[in-house]
Amino acid sequence: MDTALVERRPLVWILPLSAAAAGFLVWLIYLKSTRAPAPPWIDALPAANAFFNSCSALALVAGWRSIRRGRREAHKRAMLAAVAFSTLFLASYVVYHAFHGDTRFPGQGWIRPAYFFVLVSHVGLSVVALPMILSTLFWAATGRFERHRAIARFTFPLWLYVSVTGVVVFALLRAYVGERTP
User: Fold this and answer.
1) How far is CA 70 from its chain centroid?
2) Does pLDDT of 182 surpass 60?
3) Using CA of residue 78, residue 9, residue 159, residue 176, what is the dihedral sign?
């Protein structure tokens, strides 16, 4: 079998899966017109999302520090924790937006363009990060550590940025909108 084909195999499912996830989120947040009445616990999900993003960021840094110190098992555990926290974030995010939809940012003045810069970079880079995270995970899981290291150098800072800016978006919305924030 052609080695180039084997090396690209994960992209055959990673790219369509990532595109489908992004498309689903756009539909859910911006295009879905009917909203079910939200149970009271839904209001707690934005804070839970920020918590999951914070935990993911902390796990990413712990994983990076572990691998720098040659502690592969600690690195593996930390990175799997980051994946778990990011997965919990995504599930919680989908549930929240199934009931709530988009949240408008009412801030004015200098904070408005600052908020939208953070939001747009967060959303755009999260779309890029998903296939990179899945690819990095795939290469590690299949024991192809040279490829894993090559992509992880780019995945790590991108994933960390997305995790941290998710918390920043929450904090800004909480400060300007109040209790109901994504």
Assistant:
1) 26
2) no
3) negative
Spans of all domains in the chain: 3-33+42-177
Class of domain 3-33+42-177: mainly alpha
How does residue 4 score in pLDDT terms, banded at 50, 70 and 90?
Answer: low
Which tokens is 100 given? 């709530």
Nearest residue to 159 via CA among 113, 125, 108? 125
Q: Contact at 8 Å (CB) between 106 and 173?
A: no
Backbone φ, ψ for residue 69 (5° rounding) = -95, 5
pTM: 0.86
Q: How confident is the model at residue 13 (pLDDT cuts 50, 70, 90)?
A: confident
